[in-house]
Write a structure and sequence with these properties.
alpha+beta, Cyclophilin, twelve-stranded antiparallel beta sheet, two-stranded antiparallel sheet
Length: about 280
């Protein structure tokens, strides 16, 4: 059985491979965008107007598109039990903030209507219950942390975007998280639009934290992750927008203990062996 040090080293190598993959993917897309750019030149009142395609990247997990080589089941060990204290913003936000949701080039993984651009409240909390195959997972969304993210999650939940989807990724070494929110179930899908990060340097991650997954700066969409254990190594690049209660985390713990189907022994990153299917996402009134 691999030691904790070996698992951490494997997780680090995995992250490095993902970063290389994403850089190559970004470079390839930039080339495609340049080649496929449509330039429309029209004389309007003596002016020249150019219409060009935008190079927009959606949410995605590099591991989802890699070809498995040698599958194994890795199980979570030494899961922390203490809840992580979410760092508040050093300077509170004003009562309302302006939110913008930008349409992307990638099609939506599931039909939805993007939230309206405009002001959203930056105070108060919203309760959301995810009805899943392992039982109810209770979330508390905090507008004071990330008002635009909370608004986005609530709007998608009300449209049943998360209904009948599966949590496609479970990591058990290096970081311990359960990732969900892609209707396609492969980590590459999103809602067809993106919005900016709502991060700050004081952010840290640990048991009970609810945060957005992304594929780079300002690429938030619909994918999110629940931290059920250790994630202290994560940099403050992922928008934290709420918390998960202890009873819900215990259910995720059991999934983590049964393991994740990794592509290589000791990798600790793949689909959960015990499926976590989201049947409904109900927003409290």
């Amino acid at each position: 059985m691999p030691t904790n040090e070996q698992r951490r080293a494997a997780a680090k190598r995995k992250l490095e491979r993902q970063m290389v993959y994403r850089q190559e993917r970004a470079k390839k897309r930039r080339i495609i965008a340049v080649v496929s750019t449509v330039v429309v030149v029209a004389l309007v009142g003596g002016g020249v107007w150019f219409l060009a395609t935008n190079d927009v990247f959606g949410n995605g997990d590099a591991s989802a598109s890699e070809t498995p080589t040698q599958e194994s089941v890795d199980k979570a060990e030494n899961i922390p039990t203490a809840l992580h204290q979410v760092a508040k913003r050093p300077t509170p936000l004003p009562g309302k903030v302006s939110c913008e949701y930008t349409k992307g080039q990638e099609p939506a993984a599931k039909q939805n209507t993007p939230p309206a651009n405009g002001e959203q409240p930056a105070t108060g909390t919203v309760g959301v219950t995810l009805g899943t195959s392992i039982g109810d997972l209770k979330l508390t969304l905090d507008r004071s942390l990330a008002p635009c993210t909370v608004n986005n999650f609530v709007e998608l939940a009300k449209q049943k975007y998360f209904d009948n989807t599966t949590c496609h990724r479970l990591t058990v070494t290096g970081i311990q998280v359960l990732q969900c929110g892609d209707p396609g179930g492969n980590g590459m899908g999103g809602p067809g639009y993106s919005f900016k990060d709502e991060t700050y340097p004081e952010l840290s991650y640990g048991r009970g934290v609810l945060a957005m997954a992304n594929s780079g700066p300002n690429t938030n969409g619909s994918q999110f992750f629940i931290v059920y254990g250790d994630a202290a190594s994560l940099k403050p690049d992922y928008t934290v927008f709420g918390t998960v209660d202890e009873e819900s985390l215990k259910k995720v713990d059991e999934v983590a203990k049964t393991g994740t189907i990794s592509q290589q022994p000791g990798q600790g990153d793949g689909k959960p062996k015990t499926p976590v299917d989201i049947k409904s996402a109900l927003v409290a009134n």
